[in-house]
Amino acid sequence: MYVDIIEMPELKAAVLEIPRDGGEVRKAWKKVSDLLGGHSAVQDPDNGYVFIPEWQWATEVTTLWVGMLVSGFEGLPDGLAQVTIPAKRFARLRVKGDRKQMEQCYGYLFEWFDKSPHRRDVREGSLGFEKNALHPVNPFDIPADEINEFDFYIHAPLIEPAESSDPYSGIISVEVKEAGPRRIVGVEAFIDRNLVQAHQAVPELWQRIMPRLKEVGSVKAPFATFGLYGYEPPFGPGQNFRYLAGVESAPHSSEPLPDGMADRVIPGGEFVTVTYKGTASGLEQTWNYFHQVWFPLQTDYDAIDEFEFERHDGRFQGTDNEQSVMEMHFPVKRRVQERRLTDKIVVDEKGRHLLQDLRNENIRMASFQGSSFHGIDMRDTALRYVNFVHSEWEHIYFAGVHIRSIQMGGTVFEDIRRPEAPMSRLDAEPGTDGWVNVEPVVFRNSDLSTGRFENCDLSGVQLNGCRLDGMTIDGIPVTELLDDYLKRKEA
C-alpha cells in the first residue's frame, strides 16, 4: 500500500444525506442517479461519490452524503442537497480487494497519518470522500450484505502547510506515475563533492546549456528541461554523481549531437513524482520527503538507486521565484510479495525496521535457489557448505567477516570501499552508524592466481610470503621488479 498526495480543485456535488448504513447508501445512490441521470450539470458520470464528515472520526462516523459531482447548482432537481469542498490537498489511497483488504486499507491510512508529517483535516465542516468507479461493475447495484470485492479511492483532506508546522511545506503533490523511456540531450559533468560544491556546479551547467538549447534537434513537445542524476554504488547521502542538464529529444533522431553535448536514455518504468512549489533552494524537500516519508511508509515498491531526474515545464518561473513549480522523479519497481517465515519480529537497531525474527535458528539442508534476500541482518551468522554460484551481492556490510575455504572462480569484486574514518570505533552496536571498522583486510593461505586488480587503491597493501610468478603491475613482471630492487640494494 502507498499514499499519494494530490491537489484537487474546488468540488461541487449534488447529494443526499443519509445515516451511515450500506443499504441506505444504495437507496440514496438509486435516487440520485434517477434524478441526475443525463443531466448536463453532471461532471463525472463514471464515478459515484460518498462524502464523509471528517470531524466524526473522533467518535464515530454516523452520517454520509451520497451523490455526483456537478458544475453548478442552478437548475438541479428538487430534493438534492449541495456540498462544496474548497480546493485543497488530499491523501489518496486505493482500496482494491475483499472486505478484509478494505478494512486493512483504512487501518493503514490511520497509521500513515500517525507516522507522516501530514495532518488530517478533521475540523468541523471538513469532508473527505470515496470515489467509486461505476464501470465495469457498479458497486451500488450489489446489496451491501453481498458485496465482497471493492475498487475505490479514499480521499482524506489535509491541513495546508500554512496552517501547520509542515517541514515539507513546498510539496504540493506526490503520485506514482508510469512513463516510457526518454532520451535527454545536453551538457554533462561529474560532480565530485570533494572538489566542487554541488549547489554551484549544477547551476553552472544550466548556464552553459540554456543558450545552446536551440542547437538540439527533434526536441519533444511539450517543452521541458531535465536534470538527470546518475549514481554509482555504494549509494547514500552526499555521494558523488553524474549530472546531465538538457532537454528531451526524439529517441531515434538521426541528427548529430551538438559539439560538447552528450545524450542518455532514462529507462521507462514507474516513478514517484514529487511536485514542489517554491525557490530552487528548497528543492531538497523532495529528496527528504521521498526517502524519509514516502518510501518508509509504503509496502508496494522498492527504490531504484542508480538515477533520478528533475523536470521543469512551463510552470517553472525561475530559481528564485516562490511560485515556480518543479518535479522530482524517483524510479521505483514493484516489490515482490514477501513470504513470512515466522510471526516473530525484532526491531533493527540501525534503521528501526521491523524484521522477521529468525535469530539463533538452525536452518539445514535448504534450497533458496532464485530467492531474493532484502534487508537481512546476518551478524554473527555461520554459513557452511553454501552454494552461491551466479548469486549477486549488493550493498553488503562485510566488516569483521571471516571467510575461509571458499571457491571463487569467476567472482568479480567491484566498487569495494573502506570506511572513511581515521580509526575504528568498535564500542557501539556492531553494524550501526556509530560502529566503524577500518582494520586491515587480510587474505591468508589463498589462491589468487590469474586474478586481476583494475583501477584499485592498493596503497599500504602488504604481500608477505606470497608466490608471485607471472604477477605483473601495469604489464611489468613483479619478479623482475623485485630482482632489480635486490640488485640495487646489494650494490
From TrEMBL:
It holds the Pfam family GyrI-like. Residues 1-159, 172-333 form the AraC effector-binding domain. It comes from the Bacteria. This is GyrI-like domain-containing protein. The lineage of its organism: Bacteria, Bacillati, Bacillota, Bacilli, Bacillales.
